Amino acid sequence: MAVMAMAAALRGPGGRFRWRTQATAGGVRGSARGAAAAQLGKKVAVVDYVEPSPRGTRWGLGGTCVNVGCIPKKLIHQAALLGGMIRDAPHYGWDVAQPVLHDWRKMAEAVQNYVKSLNWGHRVQLQDRKVKYFNIKASFVNEHTICGVTKGGKETLLSAEHIVIATGGRPRYPTHIEGALEYGITSDDIFWLKESPGKTLVVGASYVALECAGFLTGLGLDTTVMMRSIPLRGFDQQMSSLVTAYMASQGTRFLKHCTPSRVQKLPDGQLQVTWEDLTSGKENMGTFSTVLWAIGRIPETRSLNLENAGINTNPNSQKILVDAQEATSVPHIYAIGDVAEGRPELTPTAIMAGKLLARRLYGQSLDVMDYSNVPTTVFTPLEYGCVGLSEEEAMARHGEEHVEVYHAYYKPLEFTVAERDASQCYIKMVCLRKPPQLVLGLHFLGPNAGEVTQGFALGIKCGASYEQVMRTVGIHPTCAEEVAKLRISKRSGLDPTVTGC
Amino acid sequence: MAQPPLPPPPRAQTSPGPVKVGTAPNRRLGSVRGVLVSSPPGRRARLSSPGTGRSSSEAREELRRRLLGLIEGNRVMIFSKSYCPHCTRVKELFSSLGVQCNILELDQVDDGANVQEMLSEITNQRTVPNIFVNKVHMGGCDRTFQAHQSGLLQKLLQEDSTYDYDLIVIGGGSGGLACAQEAAILGKKVMVLDFVVPSPQGTSWGLGGTCVNVGCVPKKLMHQAALLGQALNDSRKFGWEYGQQVKHNWETMTEAIQNHISSLNWGHKLSLREKSVDYVNSYGEFVEHHRIKATNRKGQETSYTAAKFVIATGERPRYLGIQGDKEYCITSDDLFSLPYCPGKTLVVGASYVALECAGVLTGLGLDVTVMVRSVLLRGFDQEMAERVGSYMEQHGVKFLRKFIPVMVQQLEKGSPGKLKVVAKSTEGPETIEGVYNTVLLAIGRDSCTRKMGLDKIGVKINKKTGKIPVNDVEQTNVPYVYAVGDILEGKLELTPVAIQAGKLLARRLFGGRLEKCDYINVPTTVFTPLEYGCCGLSEEKAIEVYKKENLEVYHTFFWPLEWTVAGRDNNTCYAKIICNKFDNYRVIGFHVLGPNAGEVTQGFAAAMKCGLTKQLLDDTIGIHPTCGEVFTTLEITKSSGLDITQKGCG
């Protein structure tokens, strides 16, 4: 099951271009890579096919980000933020008549129409750049050939000199929970629901889980997050707990240390979920309209018949093993994006990896992708932007005595008049202790975290030191200026909360 | 007059030894470090640092501390060269005055060259003699003789310990407060004088200066109110439903904003008290060297003395000087606390204050016209300025270009009343008339430096602008008088700059630090309806400095994701960077027009401090989906002439 797209292009013998083929998986990276290769004068095809989700949801060209990821997620996050702004507005003098209601159907239609326009845009872009697009499900026949099957069952064989696999991943369903597959949905479905999901149980503590729970709460739905262990594994844990603390303050319920054991459909169509509380060992039950699984993603490699081409995968993660050049165990076959082992699962990294790969393949440059210091942002109700190392990682790598952490709570100016609680607006900068105190990581929790983090990511790329950041003059009044005012180190034990103004 | 404070208990001496300075009881005696002329500091420093691979920065740090120790610890400290005739003259002068001085002959110590270099860092003066009197940098031979003639030298020599304060700061705005608090943290006795002369319309406010009371803070909050109006429009597209009628209530907004400001005023007072800074709500004027007269609201006068002064009086809005302006027009000093909705408004001027105010009022649903004499946002990148203007125009702001008002006449009293404005063309004889409820002047700001007795102590100001010229350590021509903030000549008028300058000044004066305020690559943001953030050079300035052929300009339009579903304008938000081709494509100008421009710009400013280049931008991964990520994928150069409009998707 899978979205699959592949792009490949090749130069035939004797320097003439001809279709040989290529293959593999697409999505944003496939397109980026395909388009980039085509721009370099190569003959390229992209093979993309979306296997419908267990709920039957399907979508067009563009991959996870465009269809069931970043784009619809950020738009619905924005819808939720607008709800907050409607509540702020009266403080700023706007008379908004009550009641204020939200129409899921209207929002979903607007978001879906925008996504469809992007699908169309991707198609046009491939055409403009003379990339051949096949809407077929591909698998390897041998190391230069793939076989594609259309929805109708028709087969096509394509061959290529180079093949790039960029099939991405799909949400994972739990395998041993009764009713999970029959009644649950995933992030593949939520953005394409025509009707409001109603009272929702989100299972998982990944960023997908928290983002979905955050916007559902923001749109006024009764939302519960059930997590087995810690939120946002892999992210800085202090920041993660502030993220969930803010969500809880906004009305998201949390069932911590709980795992579901059964989902049953009641006669009225509601879903009855049974779960175990791991702390007490007790069994509990609750009724929801929707159960959303967000417990992780699995790479789309199983239906590719990778063994026919001799491509190695990690048996545990099922991801494809790659080297720094993005090459798999078969030198002319590459893998980029979420399907590749050890890569951050982020759209812009996949895009850049794809572009750089195309340029390397066709002699434009030798640059390889630098996967360090990749900035990212979690679009939870209070956004969390970060780049570089978490505090835990920095300590583990450099030793606690060599790390200095500067931090501060702050209050965004806009929160004051709106009487919003800023208890979780927090920034920390993780630095080496030895002067000039090289910045290892920056963590920002607050409005517009993505916008704030982007520029600082550049700073870290430039090898910024704590001193240099402190010498940067702030832009007043912004939240970002607080980063340039971080004076209190954790080691000092001084109070990092806001004082005065 | 206040009694001089009792001397504090002596502080621990770091290196006990004979003290070869000072005369009478000196309350600073405790801080004097022992210095032996017979044991030149240069040698001692070397002895204490037996070249065992200590880093040069540590050695420099030690040298600096040693020099500051000499300066702090001696009533008169002369850095000299034994063969220099100017030095000899100065030594003779002090000798004739019967004043004992400590002399360090740079040519007779091993590290004389290092000392000279460090002195030039500390004082911005490379030459000898380099003279300090009671810790005040006097300058060289000529300035010492001038000071002798004017009486300043004698004054400085007397001053020992009899001042009421170590520092008096005149002006309780961002820069003044930062400087005062930092000095207090460093253990100094500090006073802040702050007094707000009511505007011609009678508006007055509390402690905190322009930014807090009539600048950044209320401006950004009103801007937020206007943005929320836009958000309300957007929200319907995102599925929110509520009554069609949405009205804005000016009084509710201003009351909430003023409440917040009051809490900030209170916070500033509290913070001064916590740091034991004396705050006096009086108007300060110099009456003689080191002495100031403070006049309170009731006209009562008190006088205070201090060793050092910092002028941080800032600026106030300028009036046109035409019939009716002071009687009937308001300025940004009045707008943010205006007790009634201003109604149909004419904004005069094209400064960022003018455009921000016009943007806010339009966003709140008012009928707004901006009268512009020449260009928009003078000093900013003009392409960006025009884009800011055209966005405003598309969103309801009317512009009257190349006109200046000649008369304002009241037609009706009221809140608001009705005013008739007559304006004439800057290009011909044409005049026009218009009727408005409110006329807001935002044509510039004047320094508050002319009525504070600066002439009495000889502090030079620019006669035309009223601004105060300072050297790169914020020192005026009178050595013990410093200045920070908007009143500085040729510096930036920005709150965070003033804060930084004030803090660093206090650390240099009292904390033995050296770091100077860096006025280069200061980022800023104009909070117009479409925000404009920038850092570094405008395109015009870059061309002037580096020549067009040495530059590459990358640019693009972008469409924020949130704007798509909201149905807002495509091909409006704009990003531009200016790179120096012959310096590794270093980014020397950064410009962004779009939502949250301030938040976007800040981090890039930090990156520019660290030597941002185009290659680094290209190598950095974007954060998806944000506006900021557009800078990591800039491909089109202006010189290519390629189309930058966005079609389809990103």
From TrEMBL, chain A:
Residues covered by the FAD/NAD(P)-binding domain: 32-354
InterPro entries from the UniProt entry: FAD/NAD-bd_sf, FAD/NAD-binding_dom, FAD/NAD-linked_Rdtase_dimer_sf, GSHR/TRXR-like, Pyr_nuc-diS_OxRdtase, Pyr_nucl-diS_OxRdtase_dimer, Pyr_OxRdtase_I_AS, Thioredoxin/glutathione_Rdtase
Stretches assigned to the Pyridine nucleotide-disulphide oxidoreductase dimerisation domain: 374-485
EC numbers, comma separated: 1.8.1.9
Protein name: thioredoxin-disulfide reductase (NADPH)
Required cofactor names: FAD
Keyword Transferase: no
Key word Oxidoreductase present: yes
Pfam families: Pyr_redox_2 (PF07992), Pyr_redox_dim (PF02852)
Family: Belongs to the class-I pyridine nucleotide-disulfide oxidoreductase family.
Keyword list, A-Z: Disulfide bond, FAD, Flavoprotein, NADP, Oxidoreductase, Redox-active center, Selenocysteine
Phylogenetic placement of the source organism: Eukaryota, Metazoa, Chordata, Craniata, Vertebrata
From TrEMBL, chain B:
Sequence segments annotated as region (Disordered): 1-60
Sequence ranges assigned to domain Glutaredoxin in this UniProt record: 76-137
InterPro entries referenced in this protein's UniProt entry, alphabetically: FAD/NAD-bd_sf, FAD/NAD-binding_dom, FAD/NAD-linked_Rdtase_dimer_sf, GLR_AS, Glutaredoxin, Glutaredoxin_euk/vir, GSHR/TRXR-like, Pyr_nucl-diS_OxRdtase_dimer
Domain FAD/NAD(P)-binding: 165-502
Biased composition (Pro residues): 1-11
Record's keyword terms, sorted: Disulfide bond, Electron transport, FAD, Flavoprotein, NADP, Oxidoreductase, Redox-active center, Selenocysteine, Transport
Any Pfam family the entry gives: Pyr_redox_2
PROSITE patterns in alphabetical order: GLUTAREDOXIN_1, GLUTAREDOXIN_2, PYRIDINE_REDOX_1
Domain spans labelled Pyridine nucleotide-disulphide oxidoreductase dimerisation: 522-633
EC number: 1.8.1.9
Class of the enzyme per the UniProt entry, highest EC level: oxidoreductase
Function: Has a glutathione-disulfide oxidoreductase activity in the presence of NADPH and glutathione reductase. Reduces low molecular weight disulfides and proteins.
NCBIfam families with a match to the protein in the record: GRX_euk, TGR
Protein's name according to its UniProt entry: thioredoxin-disulfide reductase (NADPH)
Organism name: Felis catus
